[in-house]
Amino acid sequence: MTLTRPLSLALDMPAQGLTVLVADDSRAQRMVLAMSLGRWGFHVVEAASGSEAMELCRRTAFDIVISDWVMPGLTGPEFCRAFRGLPRDGYGYFILLTSKSEKAEIAVGLDAGADDFLTKPVSADELRARLRSATRIIGMQRELVEKNRLVVDTLTELQVVHESLNRDLIEAKKLQQALVRDRYCSFPGGAASLLMRPSGHVGGDLVGWFEIRPKLVAIYSIDVSGHGIASAMLSAQLAGMLSGHAPGQKGALSRLGTGHYTSWPPEILAGRLNRIMLEEMRVDLYFTMAYAEVDLKTGDVQLVQAGHPHPVILRTDGTVEALGEGGLPIGLLPEVIYTRVQARLSPGDRLILASDGLTEYPFPGGAELGTEGLTTLIRQSAHLPSPALLEALVWDLFSLTGADTPADDISAAILDFAGLP
Fold first, then answer.
1. Which of 113, 131, 205, 415 is most solvent-facing, going by the fewest CB within 10 Å?
2. pLDDT recorded at residue 122
3. Which residues partner with 287 through β-bridges?
């Protein structure tokens, strides 16, 4: 092989650390290339044949291979094809030296897996340009491998975090479901049935009931804005406030001087909760609520509707009556005046409170179920006992929309009124 001029010029490339295999059956030609590559900062290994070069490649992952076309044992294209078949992590850049310039011969080399060609006699400038290209591609490949490694490591870390968070959310779901201890409970004068179906692990809906005093019970339905952990935490705090077991300044009950407890009127309770949300909690959340007190002796109902879907009464004759005029959600605006709504139940009537997960459930095409749609579904299942009626509402909703999981948190509460003598 004849070189047009010495190859001792500065290469001006990041050759440090790159290993080059020079495969050529001419010792003199190997020496000239090896000396020049060494001056440029490459670590050079020599092989006198294609077979010897292949054996070296099985033991060492060379960054660049410069191979003559015609060699004993394996030709340059044969060596290249075998080289490409070796398992390796990084990319190996393969340059074929040839005196052949026909397109058919070049195609043979490309088909074997060669990256580039140098025509003999080798030009120093051309070799330098080929090596710049090789080091640039190897550098980009190494950078890509490193970035991929970082991505894989990050994804692995995220997977660990996700699994930990998922376990926590499963436990949080159990705790939230435990807030609704008894999905069905009968008591003198009536019964309460509850449904809570979150769209995710945890949600912002809450339903419940409690005894204020003998012959007087409260039932409520709450929908906290948003979804997820923050909404679930607020709903859990509200569950503590709306409880017969935790009377106090921030709860639904207050202690009388006699040691007994009484309840704040529904509209006053809503105003108190609104003030607590804005002045004490100061969170970027709000909630809607329907809260009712039912006298189990007379059937008298006092309730407040704060941005929640209309409570309804399912009469014994199958008619459905909507109550309330809407109202503002709790935690949006200060000094809101809430209005008391009154009604009366007869024995056999049912008071139903439901979240907008039912009334605003989306249909294909963008329509929603709405209050009228919910009324229709209630009438269809009016013959069922209340626990079965609640499940029927969800089943019918999924049947109408073609869904199998809730698009939003779904919750509802039913108070069956039997009356006391």
1. 113
2. 74
3. 224, 330
What distance, in Å, lies between the first and last C-alpha atoms of the chain?
A: 117
Pairing of strands 261-263, 253-255: antiparallel
Beta bridge partners of 208: 220
In this structure, what are the phi and psi dihedrals at residue 117, rounded to the nearest 5 degrees? -135, 150
Helix-helix angle 50-59:76-84, to 10 degrees: 20
How far is it, in rounded angstroms, from Cα 278 to Cα 74? 83
Give per-residue pLDDT as tens, 252-296: 676 655 556 678 899 999 999 999 999 988 888 899 999 999 999
Beta strands in 159-242 (DSSP E): 184-187, 190-197, 205-213, 216-224
Check residue 14 and report its DSSP letter: -
* Nearest residue to 96 via CA among 23, 168, 156: 23
**Percent of the chain topping pLDDT 70:** 84
Given a contact cutoff of 8 angstroms between Cβ atoms, the answer to whether 101 and 119 are in contact is: yes
Structure tokens at 365: 């095409």
Angstrom distance (rounded) from CA 157 to CA 162:
9
| Strands across the sheet containing 19-23 | 43-47, 19-23, 64-68, 93-98, 116-119
Query: What tokens does 135 get?
Result: 């080091």
